[in-house]
Amino acid sequence: MAILITGGAGFIGSHTAVELISAKKNIIIIDNLCNSNIQSVENIRKITGVDFPFYKADCCCDADLEKIFEENEIQTVIHFAGFKAVGESTQKPLKYYKNNLKSTLSLCEVMKKFGCSHLVFSSSATVYGAPKTVPIKEDFPTSTTNPYGTTKLMIENILKDICKADPKFSVACLRYFNPIGAHKTGIIGEMPNGIPNNLMPYITQVAAGKLKILSVFGNDYETHDGTGVRDYIHVVDLAKGHLSALKYIKNHSGFETFNLGTGTGYSVLDILKTFERVNNIKIPYKITKRRPGDIAICYADPTKSKKLLNWKALLSLEDMCCDSWNFAKKAIAGK
Ligand code: NAD
Ligand code: WQD
Q1: Ligand 2 pocket by C-beta < 6 Å: which residues?
Q2: CATH fold of 2-182+233-262+300-313, please?
Q3: Does the pTM exceed 0.70?
Q4: In the chain, which residue ranges form alpha helices assigned H by DSSP?
Q5: Residue to mutate, 14, 15, 31, ligand 1, most ligand atoms under 8 Å from C-beta
Q6: 10 Å Cβ neighbour count for 16?
């Protein structure tokens, strides 16, 4: 029996693959490498010393999925595959609706066909829109401000309906907050194409000298230092949350949402200062105007995940900053 990881060559998928293999699970990865590369699959093998089947294939293709289910006995799927760039999704909404929705619909159809009814889905804190209060609980109202977020919410609703119609189906819908950091070995981590949209990859590229200066998007928010506050979570803690979710869906049916965050909010300047301190590197920055669509504060209430999944984040902001740079300095600067 194996666990199929869609998008397993990507940032979160590769770290989850490592944690699953370390927990002695059999895994199979499907990824079309549209936002990753084959080296990342090799790196998972290198860290774990374990080989596993890899299919370079598209989750939107029913025939490719059927072939994988025919060739393997798949018990559970963890579905990471999808596009994730908020800004691009506003420019190219069709690209996002097509890939994120079609891949999930095809996957669920093929799962049903092969009698596989256990799924862990990668959702996002973006489905909470602009929350009225923090910390955010799973039962807070949902809303979205961009097509990417809308795809996540639409998929959540589709999965809810599938669970209602089929009592065997069990879905853990994990709402990630802001994953950063990298594997301790520095062998896998986050390496976005082009100029990064997200804070930590931008900082590491400035640290490596690839970009000149970090723009801090606004210092007039109602936060402790005026800059935006987020719930940054180490990607290895996040990956371990998937192991806990796998245990949960084995013993439960139906659709359940879980926040995967630390429960602590840090500002842009907190991140910047901690990165500088733990890595002993100066990051030049300037304050610029707010980024459209950004909210002031977002952090999780992770109580439900602690209670039902028996999971909580353990790694510190120092670990996140240190491990992000340990990976990036090799990957970008070759140091
Ligand atoms: P990523 O881009 O690094 O990984 C996604 C992987 O999916 C990539 O390797 C890509 O090649 C693959 N992929 C995309 N479409 C595919 C398709 N149709 N068929 C096969 N493979 C396909 O992204 P990530 O940061 O690892 O995110 C993983 C999941 O978590 C995504 O669904 C994302 O929306 C969600 N998420 C990410 C964050 C974040 O900040 N990184 C936050 C919340 C939720
Ligand atoms: C964090 C903070 C910025 C870049 C995004 C998605 C969300 C989820 C996680 C997928 C904010 C500030 C950033 C920069 C800055 N992804 N910032 N200068 O926007 O919280 O969340 O990634 O589901 O859906 O929206 O993350 O890393 O872009 O920003 O000052 O160059 O850093 O304003 O306060 P965000 P981020």
Answers
A1: 84, 86, 124, 126, 178, 197-199, 202, 214-217, 228, 230, 268, 291, 294
A2: Rossmann fold (3.40.50)
A3: yes
A4: 11-22, 38-48, 62-71, 86-91, 93-96, 102-113, 147-165, 199-207, 235-251, 268-279, 303-304, 317-331
A5: 31
A6: 30
What H or E segment, with its residue span, contains residue 144?
none
- In ligand 2, which atom is closest to the CA atom of 214? 31
The three-class DSSP label of residue 317 is helix
Tokens 């973006």, located at residue? 126
CA distance 186 to 56: 24
Ligand 1 center to residue 107 CA distance, Å? 15
Q: What is the pLDDT of residues 174-206, one digit of tens each?
A: 999 999 999 999 999 998 889 999 999 999 999
**pLDDT tens per residue, range 45-88:** 999 999 999 999 999 999 999 999 999 999 999 999 999 999 99
